[in-house]
Amino acid sequence: MISVKENLHHTAFRAMNTDIEVAYFNDSERFDLEDQVRDWFEFVEERFSRFRPQSELSYLNRSAGRICMVSETMLEVLRLADSYRARTDGMFNPLILKALRAAGYDATFDQVRQRPGYRSTSEPDSISMDGAWELDPAMKSVRLPLQAEIDLGGIVKGWAVSRLARWMREAWAVPCGMVNAGGDLAVWGASPRNKEQSWLIGIQNPWNPGEDAGVLHLKEGAAATSSTLGRQWLTQNSVMHHLIDPRTMSPSRSDVVQCTVAGSDAVECEIWAKTICIAGLEHGLSLFRAEAAGCEALLFLRDGRTHFIGANASPAVRWQLPTATLRH
């Protein structure tokens, strides 16, 4: 939940299989950016949607094993993904599309959740993630491992948010705004009438989705939330979700069920929120402390406990948390 400041233009729509919300200060001389915003998210889907047969990502997956020329946009995201795969000790790895399908996530989540009854799944042991893609930035080419398929849903939302926010600030001279794609968000600027006002970001209670478990006061920066409880579906094996553990090629069974990360960049926040959910408390926090300087995180554990990690010293970020939260 986001408290939208007064005098902001606001638009909300559905794209990228999630809810998009954009708000920005709109003085009398500034044109309406809604068409440009919608066009941007349509462009992102044309490049990266695994549910569109003609997207660039679908073409790349069909070309696995062969050298494939890619767009500057695809190259940028793949290079980011490579970097975060190394920084997260492989906990973030896009080579999981076959595992997602095997778990039952073979259509958009809106379609999956509307299916009646149980859905069959493949055995996780039949899925392999051997090898890594080969990137050639100079040639603007990539070669996926033979028979491999990638899903970039774990990075593209944050990237799309970050890019759009930057364009709105720099190219369109928007002094104050917010871009939110399904909980991956970026905010900047201050209300002309109240320079001290912050964006209020409600952190959903994973055990009671109708309530907030805390509030993040964010003046400048980004935040992202990832959860194993949101995108769930039922199979004959068990309840499944969309966060695949690359060590098992099955939905994660870690002790972390939800994580919110705040920092300066939406991509970094998205990656670390997912990584901590997949890796679990001990390994996830070890990686987070070593590789995510400047970020803070709020974790919800399967046993009902909550943990806060961070200095909580940034003037642009303030957490309003439950008193039971353990701080590290």
UniProtKB/TrEMBL annotation:
<dbReference type="GO" id="GO:0046872">
    <property type="term" value="F:metal ion binding"/>
</dbReference>
<feature type="binding site">
    <location>
        <position position="154"/>
    </location>
    <ligand>
        <name>Mg(2+)</name>
    </ligand>
</feature>
<dbReference type="Pfam" id="PF02424">
    <property type="entry name" value="ApbE"/>
</dbReference>
<keyword id="KW-0808">Transferase</keyword>
<keyword id="KW-0285">Flavoprotein</keyword>
<dbReference type="GO" id="GO:0016740">
    <property type="term" value="F:transferase activity"/>
</dbReference>
<keyword id="KW-0479">Metal-binding</keyword>
<protein>
    <recommendedName>
        <fullName>FAD:protein FMN transferase</fullName>
        <ecNumber>2.7.1.180</ecNumber>
    </recommendedName>
</protein>
<keyword id="KW-0460">Magnesium</keyword>
<dbReference type="InterPro" id="IPR024932">
    <property type="entry name" value="ApbE"/>
</dbReference>
<dbReference type="InterPro" id="IPR003374">
    <property type="entry name" value="ApbE-like_sf"/>
</dbReference>
<keyword id="KW-0274">FAD</keyword>
<comment type="similarity">
    <text>Belongs to the ApbE family.</text>
</comment>
